[in-house]
Amino acid sequence: MSLKTSFICESAIAIRNDILSHEAEIESLDRAIGDGDHYVNMKRSSEVIAGLVDELKPLSPDEALNKIGMKLLSTIGGAAGPLFASFFMGMAKIVKHNGASNPLETAAAFAAGVQAIMQRGKAELGEKTMLDVLIPTSTTFTLSAAGDNKVTEICKAVKAAADQGLENTRNLVATKGRAAGLGERSVGHLDAGAKSCQVMIHAVCNLLLKS
Amino acid sequence: MKKFINDVNHMLTESLSGFAAAHADLIELNLEPNFLTRKNKSKNKVAIISGGGSGHEPLHAGYIGYGMLDAACPGQVFTSPTPDQMLAAAEAVHMNKGVLFIVKNYSGDVMNFEMAAEMLPFEHATILTSDDCAVINSTYTTGRRGVAGTVLIEKCVGSLAETGADLKTCKTFGDKINARTASIGVALTSCTVPAAGRPTFDINDTELEMGVGIHGEPGRRREAMREADAIVKDMLDAILADLKPQKNQEVLLLVNGFGATPLMELYLLYNSAAKLLNTHGIQITRSLVGNYTTALDMAGASITVCLLDDEIKQHWDSPAHTPALRWGI
Q1: What domains does chain B contain, in order, with CATH numbers?
Q2: pLDDT for B139
Q3: Comparing B200 with B250, which gets the higher pLDDT?
Q4: Nearest Cα residue in chain B from A124
Q5: Does A126 lie at the interface with B, CB-CB under 8 angstroms?
Q6: What is the average pLDDT value for chain B, to the nearest integer?
Q7: Is the dihedral of CA B270, B272, B276, B278 positive or negative?
Q8: Do the strands B221-224 and B207-210 form a parallel or antiparallel pair, or are they unpaired?
Q9: CB neighbours of B242 closer than 8 A, spacing ≥ 6?
Q10: Model pLDDT, residue A34
Q11: What is the mean pLDDT of residues A196-209?
Q12: B196-200, long-range: CB within 8 Å, 24+ apart, which pairs?
């Protein structure tokens, strides 16, 4: 498994398709404890990036990731814009320096992207945000890749980590993001941002499992 | 959902175009990236730029003009604008005395303005407004939200900048007003984000949402609907506990509508709040009542109290000429 530009492009299409097919679920989560704009933003941004594919194709993987980051920064707005942009730009930096020609290097790039989100959002694990999916996913990805597992096994482990991370947000009290104002009332609901990340991680893993 | 719409995707552009056309004497509009600037620019002052999600009109573009803002960056509905808008706006209005961002404390706005500030080639500073005392401040949360009190800060800091004050002085003044201002909102109905097409939250006829934010995000608690005096008492209790005013303190009282509550009810709330503040020995010497920081079509209102001093009074009273606030000029 190496991170090629063609795979980044296929992922962009797969992510858009899966975000659109999970509309009802994501939207109802955001309506419960968010402010109702999360799905609209995810839809707009995933469509914009899928529409960017022809421009991405001639680029190197790090250039493609960086371009996705810059495009997200000028398209999404809200908290999601800078956070997702930081992810792709953080990932691009590591891919440029170290490459991503095997699962372990790709996991390191993913981890750098997650780090960038943590810094920009000043958030950690357990605050009922997308990081509750991304951090355990990143850890599992790194451990599984280091264990010399096959790509199919890595993907299954990563999907399971994303599912568990999402489920964990149910009983958390939101301390970051729009649901933070709710305090205890946020308990009992899954976080919409965490759900979107779980959907996107599944989309990319399913792509790898198919090939 | 029943709203005046041609195409939901063009709603923002059409509304901004209408706004710019209606106030062509005061405002210039740039599209892609979206920002609005003041037509009759002052010569040499700190450039004051604000911005935020759309749906809070007249905040912020309605406050562009003499004595208030130099530019505003409107985002999509309830969604922060993006750094490219802020950079383009700063480029258009800066006058070599620095750029001052006025930003409501919502994580999206904070992060986007932060990334813009990191890329800005000019001297800059940011005032984060956080007047909403419904959200309890703690190290574990994003903190208090910036709501209707932002209007007072845009008015007074805008006035100070007009005197030629430097960037640091303007920022310090804004921070001072923010520390002396507290707001709390109550929703009677939800708002409907046009792109979503349905109400953001469910609330029935016997309930109200105490401490609601200006995007319809829930607040302190869901409570039973009751008479106006009792609601106002709970709102002022929260504000007074936060500001702890001395006896005989002079204050500015702002009763702000969220978009679907008639002025008649806003004045009724003002009457109720004024009586209560009087019984606490607090003197209301400045007032503002109307729709100044809205939440689309939400029914409800917020109360804002600002502890005045001579400097704040001077800059509140000074002339301003903007689409939404105009006096003395």
Answers
A1: 11-180 (3.40.50.10440), 181-308 (3.30.1180.20)
A2: 42
A3: B250
A4: B140
A5: no
A6: 95
A7: positive
A8: antiparallel
A9: B133, B182
A10: 76
A11: 97
A12: B196/A27, B196/A31, B196/A36, B196/A37, B196/A39, B196/A40, B197/B1, B198/A31, B198/B1, B200/A31, B200/A35, B200/A36
pLDDT at B140 over 80: no
- Report the residue of chain A nearest B139, measured CA to CA: A175
Task: Look at residues A181, A178, A199 and name the one whose alpha carbon lies nearest to residue A129.
Answer: A178
Interface test with B, best of A30, A31, A35, A38 (most B CBs within 10 A): A35
Residues of B labelled as active-site residues:
56, 215
- Residue in B78, B103, B107 to test binding to A, most A beta-carbons within 10 Å: B107
Would the CB atoms of B215 and A37 count as touching at under 8 Å? yes
ipTM for the whole complex: 0.73
Quick one: which of B261, B273, B268, B264 has its CA closest to B303?
Answer: B273
Question: Which residues does A162 contact at the CB level (< 8 Å), separation at least 6?
Answer: A133, A136, A137, A197, A198, A201, A202
Pairwise CB contact (< 8 Å): B201 & A79: no
Residue B137 has pLDDT above 60, yes or no: no
* Domain containing residue A139: 5-210
Q: Give the CATH number for residue A71.
A: 1.25.40.340
Give the closest of A40, A82, A182 to B196, CB-based.
Answer: A40
**A5-36 residue pLDDT tens:** 999 999 999 999 999 999 999 999 988 887 67
**What pLDDT shows up at residue A40?**
85
Contact A36 B200 (CB under 8 A): yes
The residues facing B30 across adjacent strands are B35
Q: Do B216 and A35 touch (CB under 8 A)?
A: yes
Q: Range with the lowest mean pLDDT among A142-151, A187-196, B141-150, B302-311? A: B141-150
**For tokens 């932002």, what's the residue?**
B150
Q: How large is the average pLDDT for residues B178-192?
A: 97
Nearest-CA distance A66 → chain B (Å): 15
Token reading at B97 = 């005395």
Indicate the pTM of the whole model.
0.85
Looking at the structure of chain A, the number of domains it has is 1
* B107 contact residues in A (CB cutoff 8 A): 79, 121, 176-178
Query: What pLDDT was estimated at residue B142?
Result: 62
